[in-house]
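Below: protein 1.
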Amino acid sequence: MSDKTGQLSRRARRRKRRKVLLIVEIIILLLLLAVLFFWLKFGMINFRDIGSVKTNKLSKQTEQTLSGYTNFVVFGVDSRSSGESATAGGNTDVQIIVSINNDTKKIRMASVYRDTLLNIDPQGTGTYSKSNAAYARGGEKQALEMMNGNLDLNIEKFVTFDFAAVTDVIDDVGGIEVDVSDAEYQALNSSRWPTIPEVARLSGKKATYVTKPGLQTLNGVQACAYCRIRHTSDGKGDYGRAERQRKVMSLVIDKVKKASLSQLNSIVDDVLPKVSTNFSATEIISLATAAKSYSVDKSFGFPFDKWNGTMNTYGSIIVPCTLETNVEKLHQKMFDEMNFAPTQTVRTISQQISYRTGKTEADVEDFSKSEGNIGVDDTTTEDTTDSTSTTTN
């Protein structure tokens, strides 16, 4: 009886071992399938190596502060083309600095107005022009060096998209809810500047017009057109457009955080082929795993203090008054670096801009009602809301 019991016990142990081995094999198989899945998905991204990106000689305090954030620039290219060539050239219609606090996961976004007069090649020829011309002349590398050289940053990463990517991601999450003003409604349906038909053509989708102002769900084509309109009767111009771009980005972030697995899979399949970046696959996975914790803390336009008008040499431009004081405010509002001091490079560029335009702090005009800034006070260097972000010092 004891022999039979021993045999049964051994058989039971063997069966248990086989079950454990089967479970381990299944887990390994699932992990291999997961790795294969992500490998195939990441193969859809246009990874673009732009080499090293030059920066100003920053102070140790500024370098330490910036190390507490993941910073990159989002470029939306106004190439008026479609397909693979959509991100290959043209001026940037969107240029937003995105900063993620590594501890709190709070996101801050700053739109650098595309007509802002800056040194677009601070590490080279020292050419002064509208900021969005840097991308057209030297792609992401020169555009990043323009940001770093003029704003005392050390950004090396970028994400570039074309308009079809915007329409796809918004359609994949079921649209976004937007309160369309009367002025925006008129601009969306303008026959003089037919933005909706143009976006539909570039994205290969049907043009669906907005039928009324007010709170409503916009589809991909409508929302993308909403980001692009500039000629509105409220006179907000490029300030209003930059605000709408940041608003749509915030709404998309919120929708993606709540997306189902099937929606996320659709987003990956539709959007990744239309995106270029120099983030590595490992870095993308790291950012994606924390996506549920992200929330937008501040959203604003740059420069804060400015003059807007037309000059023969540059056309319609925005002049920072002065660049030096605006860069101080940028570091205060974006990185909570209250004792920041601009480098000599920024001070020199600031002096050149004032010399070339004749504009100083005395020429500042108030555009705060047009900009729609969130989380910052346009009139002082202090924030209007208590920030939950922390500075790494």
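Below: protein 2.
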Amino acid sequence: MKNVLKKAGAAVLALTLTAALAGCGSSASSAAASSDTAAASTADTADETELDKVKAAGKLVVGVEGTYPPFTYHDDNGELTGLDIELGKALADKLGVEVEFQEAAWDSLLIGIDTERFDTVINSVSITDERAEKYDFSDPYYYEARRVVVRADDDSIHGPEDLNGKKIATNTTNAFIPWYEEQGVEVVGVDTSGEAIDLLLSGRVDFVGINVPVLNAYLQEHPDAAGKVKEAFVIPNSEDVIAIPVRKGEPEFLDAINAALAELREEGTLKEISEKYLGGDYTNSAYSN
């Protein structure tokens, strides 16, 4: 009887151990499967490009200032508008997604690309050597060069060689002052571009050095000055090249942006937007003519 009981007990113990081992094997297999699934999911996420993310989200998130007319600003109705806003909308349309503008201070815009808060920034961002080390840039869509502007009735200035002995009104921190002085120019210090243009119109100075958006902003506020000033020439090596920055290592996203910009240029949309907000076509280099 004891032998029978011992055998029965051994059988029960063997069954119990077998079931336990089977259970452990099942748990291990499930854990391994879960681990493999998580790894595959992580790999898929790692392989996902910025363009994939934009397409999947159905929107392009663009960082802007919202306080920098005529590029990004709020109109009298509080609506976000400007050259870069219209460009952002047109670009998103070409990519087949919606656009979402998020406003931030200038100093934090490019950081927003780093932290992936924004897909990109469209806010008159000029290409510099320092920025190009950290970001890839699209093809340019706008060129901003400093121009010598004179009174409309003054035909004495046509190039740098005509500036000797002339007077300019400008802020004394202007980075171009050394260049002006090399041309033999006398600098008259002022605080603002508006003051400089006022001195030009009054005949107290001979010219100002200014870019198109600043001049146009003045003329919008002082419509009586329209027709009283004209551009004499573009200052050499003064051009900022404006483009769209993206995180490095996103060639598909950059190619898609460039393809969209090429279409917008070919269709004449870039030119139309420039003329609307800047009063002229500044989508090509001032030095290309």
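The longest strand covers residues 59-64.
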